[in-house]
Description:
alpha+beta; 2 strands; 30% helix
Amino acid sequence: MRIRVKAEETVYLEYFVDVPERILEISKGRLSKTYLKNAIHNWIDENQSEFNFQEYDSDRSWYDWEEVGEEWNNEY
């Protein structure tokens, strides 16, 4: 019996960046850390296309398999 095993790969990326001073200044007078976290989150959403993300880890795991016919009998 020949089977096909399906898998997925997740690649984890990271990018180190300094939060702009204007974000920190705007948040300075606020009492809540939530305000700062939301401001940073919004800034990342607006600017992430400019980040040069680097791979730091990945995970590959299979999730399904199925029996296949003779048409899948070629080697890769």
